Amino acid sequence: MTGFLKKHGWTLGLLAILLTLLIAIRVVQPNFGASGLESLARAALPFAFATAAMAVVVIAGGIDLSVASMMAVTGVTAAVLMDNATEGQAVFAVIAVLLVGIAMGAINGALIVLTKVPDIVVTLAMLFVWEGVALLILSTPGGGAADWLRSIIAGPVSLPFLPEAWTFWLPNAFIFMAVAIAVIWLPLRRSKLGLSIYAIGSDDTAAFRSGIAIGRTRVAAYAVAGLFCALGGLSLTMGTGIGEPVPGPYLMASVAAVVLGGVVLGGGRGGLLGPIIAVFILRAIRLLLTLMAVDPNVTTIVEGTIMVVVVMLGAILMMRERRS
Amino acid sequence: MTVAADQPTALIRLGRFLRDNPVIPLILLLFVLIGVLEYMRPGIVNERWIGNTIKFAIPLAMLAACQTITMLTGGIDLSVGVVATVSAFVVSSLTPLLGAPSAVTISLAAAVLVGLVNGFGVGICRVHPLIMTLGTGLIATGCLQVYQRFVIATGSEIPSFLEWLGTGRTFSLPNALFLFLPFAALILWGLARTGFGRLLYAIGANENAAKLSGVRSWQVFLALYTLSALIAGITGLLYVGMIRAPSLSLANPLLLPSVAAAVIGGTSIFGGRGGYSGTIVGALILTVLGTLLTLLQMPEGARRLLFGLIILAVTALYVRFTDQS
Question: Domain of B189: which CATH number?
Answer without folding.
Answer: 1.10.3470
